Amino acid sequence: MTAEIVAGLPLRRTAAGDAALCLVTGATGYIGGRLITELLDAGYRVRVLARNASRLTQHSWFASVEVIEGDAESETALKEALAGVDVAYYLIHSMMLKSGFEDSESRLAALFGRVAKEQEVHRLVYLGGIVTGQHELSPHMQARTDTGRLLRESGVGTIELRAGVVIGSGSASFEMLRYLTERLPIMTVPKWVKNRIQPIAVRDVLRYLVGAASLPDEVDGVFDIGGPDVFSYGEMMQRYASAAGLRRRIIIPVPVLTPRLSSGWVGLVTPVPFRLAKRLVESLKHEVVASPSSINALIPPAVGGLTSFDRAVKLALTKVKNASVETRWSDASVPGAPSEPLPTDPDWAGGSLYKDVRVMRGPASISEVWQRIESIGGDNGYSTASWAWELRGLIDRLIGGVGLRRGRRDPVRLVVGDAVDFWRVEELEHERVLRLRAEMKMPGLAWLEFRIETDSVTGETVLVQTATYAPKGLLGHLYWWAVAPMHGLVFPSMAKTALGPGSRKG
Q1: Could you tell me the CA-to-CA distances from 289 to 31, 194, 229 in Å, in that order?
Q2: Which of 93, 249, 368, 464 is deepest in the core (most CB within 10 A)?
Q3: Mean pLDDT, the chain, as a whole number?
Q4: In the chain, how many H helices and how many E strands?
């Protein structure tokens, strides 16, 4: 993204003439992480509320923002985060929760709105989803609609922007479109592919969000936003194929694919896990076309107008090709994954710990070994026993996990918070430590850690590879012993691959 996205937008100022202070929630998410850059480019002061500040350190904007560490469910944390704030962006969604997300989102929105009112926040900005017609809403869309309503009922002037399919590198909607189109030259698809949709480029979404900050206090309400193109999802797939230089796809709509079956199919073909796919598919069951609004009169598009679908696709593919994707849908944590650091013995009070420790040494330099370790996962794979990892990834997908198709944001570089297939980077010290936290489905918590050091006597590079597992209940213990034979295959192979030729047990 560049400053051209926010060029020409007015800057909201305080009564003292200072740039307004904006609070951004959901900073580790796809939109939030990019919005911060644009707010800073526009001249705003920015504060971020995050559960784990270390997840933000990889962003270029980290040193330019104020970070409040806390949970949006905590009234105390919200009071601290919202104190003195002029504009608050509510970008919290619970799309990956298995159940109860409707109540969770309503509770969070009501609390946020109440505290914002108490703290005398001037403006709330929320990004929701387009709702058209009189049809019954899916639970996900109903929850998003209720969130907007609760924020508006808070008494704080609220701008709710509603978007449909967001096209941009790393968005869940874009990756679903991309993988379906690229991998399936011939496909049977649900009948919803005939429904009209109005996609919008992520850069236009960001401009509307930034522009909402400077709107007069008396302006509030719901505004649909969309790009200049309206077509069916099937046509969008054909347009994507053309923009990506692919042959025209053969698309055969069939009426028997229910949202659940469609979601399973999407989950197997694309990196998007079943639960997220289900909610994306449910939002496409009906037309997703923006209703006429005054938004373009209030927030004029950038020079050149709204971004066409074809240009949005080409911009996104360029970022993917250049490995310059700023944020991805997978940046958000998976519910149920451990939020605490790696437990240690003997001071861990949570129960038993299982460990698989492999020590290898070899002549390769630390930089060479680190390069191989940092490139782990995604298209690069893990070891010579790749079939075992693929099998575990498939099993994870079948039981509702993220599996291996989530991939990596960058093929060679990692930062704290990055998703790597069904792992999350929890700790990274360049050429010294990489620790991955498991986000796969299992009856327990797991970590995989690599530590590199130099033997002071021989000068060799020493790799200590440790898999740690904290079981939950009897099933957790049984799981460890059931997969132990697999560990005997994959873990030695992984350590040997990392050390390279000439390596041996240490």
Answers
A1: 21, 13, 10
A2: 93
A3: 84
A4: 14, 20
Residue 134: predicted pLDDT: 59
CA dist., res. 506 & res. 493, Å (int)? 14
Domain at 3-324: CATH code: 3.40.50.720
3-state secondary structure of 465: strand
420's enclosing H/E stretch is strand 419-420
Return the amino acid letter for 74. Answer: S
> Tell me, what's the pLDDT at 501?
86
Residue 423 zone, left/alpha/beta (φ > 0; ψ -120 to 50; rest): beta
Q: Is the pLDDT of residue 177 over 70?
A: yes
Q: Report the alpha-carbon distance of residue 141 to residue 120 in Å, rounded.
A: 29
CA–CA gap between residue 429 and residue 88 (Å, rounded): 34
Please check whether residue 490 is in contact with residue 386, taking contact to mean a CB–CB distance below 8 angstroms: no
Flag whether pLDDT at 344 surpasses 70.
no
Q: Which two tokens stand for residue 72?
A: 């949006």
- The reported pLDDT for the residue numbered 277 is 66
For residues 110 and 506, give the distance between their C-alpha atoms in angstroms, rounded to a whole number.
Answer: 57
Residue 145: phi and psi, rounded to 5, are -65, -45
DSSP-assigned letter for residue 343: P
CATH class of 354-505: alpha beta
Q: Where are any strands of DSSP class E within 101-185?
A: 123-129, 158-163, 166-167
pLDDT score of 250: 87
Domain locations in the chain as residue ranges: 3-324, 354-505
